[in-house]
Amino acid sequence: MNLALMAAGGLAAAAAGFGLMFLDAARARRTGRSVALSRRATSIACLFLGAGLLHVTNVQRDAETKAHRAEETAALMKERATLERDIERIRRKLSDLHAEQAGAQ
To answer: Which helix (H) or strand (E) holds 98?
Structure first.
């Protein structure tokens, strides 16, 4: 699932939970009656659902970031090995040229 969509769902669920809690509190103040347990449970469930979705989104994003960094590291290590071989080849050529020049004198 798309991470942005999961994050949006988590934020929406959390916002719905907070909204229900505030509406319930306002209704309780206005009517003077306590809020039904089922309405409280619904608000809390929305909050937990939102928090859970946000947590899953963060874990998934961290996993994708870690995988991407591992790929980048592997590519850089491969490039480094290639460059080290090139440097060694150039050093050998330079050494051969110095030997030729010393032999010519």
So the answer is: helix 37-104
CA 28 distance to own-chain centroid: 41
Q: Could you give the CA distance from residue 79 to residue 37 in angstroms, rounded to a whole number?
A: 62
Residue listed under structure tokens 């809390």: 44
The residue among 14, 13, 35, 37 whose CA lies nearest residue 26 is 35
User: CB count, 10 Å around CB of 97?
Assistant: 10
What is the C-alpha R_g of the chain?
A: 32
Answer whether 0.70 is exceeded by the pTM. Answer: no
pLDDT of residue 33: 79
DSSP string for residues in 58-85? HHHHHHHHHHHHHHHHHHHHHHHHHHHH
Angle at 59 between CA 21 and CA 64, to 5 degrees: 140
Intra-chain end-to-end CA distance of the chain, in Å = 72
